[in-house]
Design brief:
The structure holds two protein chains of two kinds. Chain A is mainly β. Chain A contains no helices and eleven strands. By secondary structure, chain B is mainly β. Classes of the chains: A mainly beta, B mainly beta.
Amino acid sequence: SAVISQKPSRDICQRGTSLTIQCQVDSQVTMMFWYRQQPGQSLTLIATANQGSEATYESGFVIDKFPISRPNLTFSTLTVSNMSPEDSSIYLCSVDRAENTEAFFGQGTRLTVV
Amino acid sequence: GQNIDQPTEMTATEGAIVQINCTYQTSGFNGLFWYQQHAGEAPTFLSYNVLDGLEEKGRFSSFLSRSKGYSYLLLKELQMKDSASYLCAVKDSNYQLIWGAGTKLIIKP
């Protein structure tokens, strides 16, 4: 298993500002994933955070809006930049230990932009 | 495109049995996962199927038919705490997880 500490757990932010979400894993993992989950909907992958290289973004998500850092194999951050109310959502980090194993999730960050 | 379908919402009675179905169309298949997600919380892993057949884990069982692109999650002896959303997810040929929209299960006394 993997234990992931994600913070903050929730925040209320003003539009136009930025928020950085942190995820710390209790052991080294190759890939970390960042998801967004809007109310009543399923998980949408934002990007895959690779250690030592730029993150790989999914269609509809760009680095300028969601910059990601991955300084080592146990830590990653996701920044939501220049926020608008449409960015209000739950953001989740996740890790996969191996290709045929389950994904583990941080506790999630509930973001409200006002 | 890749697609996973599951019912939006189901209702069942405490103590009963409920089956949540999931059908998928993905580019490749490297396993199917079921997760439970309580409101406001992160998903937690329930089961994993990569071969055809039934996997049983306590009150929960999961079935897979790869030829039919079909899985179900069976919950027995339902308890009120089982009220949650149940997410079906498939790993595609790139080992990327493709998620269904989730089934909200409502348990009534």
